């Protein structure tokens, strides 16, 4: 059931997963970026978790919006703007009448569209969207799926595939685009952190 | 990592507070959300200029807040774009009835965050995107060229125009003009250490340099064996001139910028090396600026910026300015 408690449970597990993979994300960013991504992500998660008590009885859309605003005002960089846009976008599409699966598919699609507009980017440009767009498409396709474990397993794999696809792409957006061919062979750090976050949510569902 | 640090998380706040106290005759530092603004708000209506970007490039941009340049600057975390609430707060603080002009370096993070900040405003605003770095190929399919040391030349000249009471439209047009007249390219001899990371962003061997480097310690276009100053200068200037295509006897401004870890002695050598090449190419050096103005923490190396001058740019470059990092004629 999607509520404030489960959202913060996901967030706590995202924190654990990101912390466990801190060095790898940092290294990826140093190779093709400037090394600030992991610190921005960790700051954003920490600030968001601080909202847990305050938002304990809020509806999911309010929780997404508040976390989005918090990320927008504390993270900075490209990732701050994009993750904030995702969450604020998601909050706009919440519909309590729908099943969780349908609701999440609708919200996620809205959030990802907002990210595409904000970043003026699409799939295949070596960014976090190479994870988010396929995940969003799959959520739409499987919104009828009642077996949440099956759904989580599927989404986890799609996210991983998307993340790995960034390795051989040439970046046309973001800091890595300045490197041209030199960025080839490196996984995009934003795609990696996004995939890890999605994996953490899926694992929470799978381990229930 | 050897740096002056108490607690890594407090670096930005402590540094900004110190900056505000050291220059309390010119500017004021506001915290949460962070922005730097002029000590005295202009008593006359003018277009308010706001710039900003990641920290670690000091004196850019806070050092250019004051009469004749910026009205406010929004510093982000080290090498990270500032957040939209900073731009919103700065704009609400400095705007008069003539509108806000944002001056933004062409990085995705800066552009997105300034855009989100601008969307929160209910008064007139425009944005200039600076992209003077000729090391990066410009294409409609990429993020395009970076904004580097030429940004301060845009800030100085547009800042001067804004003081004359020019309209928002005029300021924007002139800023875009100065941007197209300006080209830069840099080379790094060492990487730099983001305090939160505690180790250098990349490794360069003792005999290597990163050619066409940006201002975040991010890798450049190619890595090469180090060469003589004249050879390095020649390649940098060729790339810039290829882009600017100056006329014979074109008057130019030459700005030699240090990245933070190279002594002034070498920067002046770089200046001389550049001047010799410009002389040979029959380009008239008529204004110059040498120093550490757009830095990358403690990165060694520097960049060359050339601006093609016309009478309007000359007038606004020469006009009085009073900021923490740039001051003349007053």
Q: Short summary of the structure?
A:
The complex is a heterodimer of chains A (208) and B (330). With 208 residues, chain A is mainly α.
H/E topology pattern of chain B: HEEEEEHEHEHHEEEHEHEEHEE
Radius of gyration of chain B from CA coordinates: 19 Å
Report the CATH superfamily of the largest domain in chain B: Dihydroxyacetone kinase, domain 1
| Helicity level of chain B | 25-40%
Task: Estimate the global geometry of chain B from the Cα principal axes.
Answer: globular
- Major sheet summary line of chain B: 6 strands, mixed
Structural class of chain A: mainly alpha
Mean pLDDT of chain A: 94
Distance between the termini of chain B: 40 Å
Could you name the CATH class of the largest domain in chain B?
Alpha Beta
- Number of E-state strands of chain B: 15
Q: Note the quaternary state here.
A: heterodimer
Describe this structure in words.
The complex is a heterodimer of chains A (208) and B (330). Chain A is mainly alpha-helical and 208 residues long. Chain A has one domain (4-206): Serine Threonine Protein Phosphatase 5, Tetratricopeptide repeat (Alpha Horseshoe). In chain A, 67% of the residues lie in helices and 0% in strands. Chain A is built from 9 helices and no strands. The model of chain A has no long low-confidence stretch (mean pLDDT 94). Chain B has helices at 11-22, 84-94, 108-119, 151-163, 168-180, 229-244, 264-280, 311-318; strands at 27-30, 35-38, 48-55, 66-67, 72-78, 100-105, 125-130, 182-188, 208-211, 222-225, 251-258, 284-291, 301-308, 321-323, 327-328. Chain B is an alpha/beta fold and 330 residues long. Chain B folds into 2 domains: 8-181 and 320-328, Dihydroxyacetone kinase, domain 1 (Rossmann fold, 3-Layer(aba) Sandwich); 182-316, 2-Layer Sandwich (Hypothetical Protein Tm841, Chain: A,domain 3), CATH 3.30.1180. Chain B has 8 helices and 15 strands. In chain B, the strands form 3 sheets. Chain B has a 6-stranded mixed β-sheet, sandwiched between helices. The N and C termini of chain B lie far apart (40 Å). In chain B, a hairpin with a 4-residue loop joins strand 1 and strand 2 (35-38). Chain B is globular and about 50 Å long. At the A-B interface, helix 2, helix 3, helix 4 and helix 5 of A face strand 5 and helix 3 of B.
């Amino acid at each position: 059931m999607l509520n404030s408690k489960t959202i913060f449970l996901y967030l706590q597990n995202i924190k654990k997963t990101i912390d466990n993979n801190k060095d790898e994300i940092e290294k990826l960013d140093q190779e093709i970026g400037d090394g600030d991504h992991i610190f921005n992500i960790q700051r954003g998660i920490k600030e968001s978790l601080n909202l847990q008590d305050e938002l304990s009885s809020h509806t999911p859309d309010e929780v997404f919006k508040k976390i989005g605003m918090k990320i927008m005002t504390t993270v900075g960089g490209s990732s701050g703007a994009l993750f904030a846009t995702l969450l604020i976008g998601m909050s706009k599409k919440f519909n309590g009448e729908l099943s969780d699966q349908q609701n999440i598919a609708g919200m996620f699609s809205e959030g990802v569209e907002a990210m595409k507009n904000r970043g003026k980017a699409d799939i295949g440009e070596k960014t976090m969207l190479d994870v988010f767009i396929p995940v969003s498409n799959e959520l739409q396709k499987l919104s009828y799926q009642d077996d949440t474990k099956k759904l989580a397993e599927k989404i986890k794999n799609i996210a991983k595939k998307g993340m790995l696809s960034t390795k051989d792409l040439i970046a046309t957006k973001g800091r890595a685009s300045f490197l041209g061919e030199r960025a080839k062979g490196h996984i995009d750090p934003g795609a990696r952190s996004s995939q890890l976050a999605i994996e953490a949510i899926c694992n929470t569902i799978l381990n229930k | 990592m050897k740096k002056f640090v108490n607690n890594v998380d407090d670096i930005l706040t402590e540094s900004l507070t110190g900056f505000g106290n050291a220059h309390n005759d010119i500017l004021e530092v506001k915290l949460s959300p962070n922005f730097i603004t002029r000590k005295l708000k202009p008593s006359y209506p003018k277009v308010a200029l706001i710039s900003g970007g990641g920290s670690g490039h000091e004196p850019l941009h806070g050092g250019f807040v004051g009469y004749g340049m910026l009205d406010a600057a929004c510093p982000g975390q080290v090498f990270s774009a500032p957040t939209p609430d900073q731009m919103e707060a700065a704009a609400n603080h400095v705007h008069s009835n003539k509108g806000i002009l944002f001056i933004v370096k062409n990085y995705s993070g800066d552009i997105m965050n300034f855009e989100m900040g601008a969307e929160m405003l209910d008064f007139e605003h425009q944005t200039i995107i600076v992209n003077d770095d000729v090391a990066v190929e410009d294409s409609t399919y990429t993020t395009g060229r970076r904004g580097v040391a030429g940004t301060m030349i845009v800030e100085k000249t547009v800042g001067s125009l804004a003081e004359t009471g020019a309209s928002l439209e005029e300021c924007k047009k002139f800023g875009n003009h100065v941007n197209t007249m300006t080209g830069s390219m840099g080379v790094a001899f060492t990487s730099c250490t983001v305090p939160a990371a505690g180790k250098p962003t990349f490794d360069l061997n003792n005999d290597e340099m990163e050619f066409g480097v940006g201002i975040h310690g991010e890798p450049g276009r190619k890595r090469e064996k180090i060469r003589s100053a004249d050879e390095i200068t020649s390649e940098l200037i060729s790339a810039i001139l290829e882009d600017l295509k100056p006329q014979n006897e074109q008057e130019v401004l030459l700005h030699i910028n240090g990245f933070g870890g190279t002594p002034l002695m070498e920067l002046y050598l770089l200046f001389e090396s550049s001047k010799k090449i410009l002389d040979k190419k029959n380009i008239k050096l008529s204004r110059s600026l040498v120093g550490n103005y757009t830095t990358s923490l403690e990165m060694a190396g520097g960049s060359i910026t050339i601006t093609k001058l016309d009478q309007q740019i000359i007038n606004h470059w020469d006009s009085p300015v009073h900021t923490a990092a740039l001051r003349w004629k007053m």
